Amino acid sequence: MAHYVHPDRVMLGKCTRREIRQALASGALKAALLPIGSIEQHNEHLSLDVDIVMATFMCQQAALELYPQATVAPSSPVGYSPYHMARKGTLTLRKETFKAFLYDIIASLKTHGFLAVLVVNGHGGNHGLLKEELPVWRQEFDMVLDEVSYWTGMSDDQRCEILQGYRDLRAGKLDTVARQTALNHASEEETALMLAAAPDRVRPISMEEYDRAGLDYAHDLSPRVREYLEPFAKEGWPAGGANPENPRDRGRQENAQLATAEKGQALIDFHTRYVAAMMQDMIDAAMAGNPWPAAEAS
Ligand SMILES: [Zn+2]
Description:
The protein has helices at 17-26, 50-66, 95-111, 124-141, 156-162, 164-170, 177-180, 188-197, 207-212, 223-229, 245-256, 261-288, and strands at residues 31-36, 70-72, 116-121, 144-149. By secondary structure, the protein is of the alpha/beta class. It has one domain: Rossmann fold (3-Layer(aba) Sandwich). The chain starts with 16 loop residues before the first helix and ends in a 10-residue tail after the last helix. Zinc ion (ZN) binds at residues 42, 50-51, 123, 185, 190.
């Protein structure tokens, strides 16, 4: 970047129609990043909006790097999170609502002449829905369109360099399935990101405080909550079997204690460069009239 750009300048909703019109007409603005996430429980210490906050943050950082080529379109803060509904505060869209919302935003961007749109996902539960729809929409809109979950550019080796939990997993130090599967959601990884990007949304708590709360997501679930969870039930749960989320919930809280802002900064550096590079490749393909995704090398 040759000069300072105020972060608001890359947020579509904070621009005027005049600014967007002129940027599109001059050819300076070509693409949109579309963040999606969720409003869902992130254990005891992180705000509910982690996933949309981080997806938006990654998009904004990428757009600043690519300025003036890309803007960040506003999106629905809520995603697809029915399996988190036992924890208070979680909101979820139905699959069809989620897909219809995204479709309409992409259609709007296409109408205004954006050449490329990259949906940047911050919530694992959204990923499958996008994968189903994107190829269909790409055909229909006849544009360079793709999606990426922002954390997927990083290899396990690279994660191990930054995150203690992943090193412990590799070294066989995590003794239970709950601990082994508690390494991203609301844990060291996401907490570190939030400490670096949005520390006002982190409320550190001790394991003593966690245990004192006596949390139980295995029993006495209301019929309405069960309706949300039933499609994801494994081995009889939540009808009667053991709820795997109770020990995993505690595992996440434990793993989160390892987070630092420095680790978050290292993760952000990597992820934003990854998202920006993908957006740039898509812009280049659109400008050259090349197909996207590029044909598989034979
Ligand atoms: Zn999350």
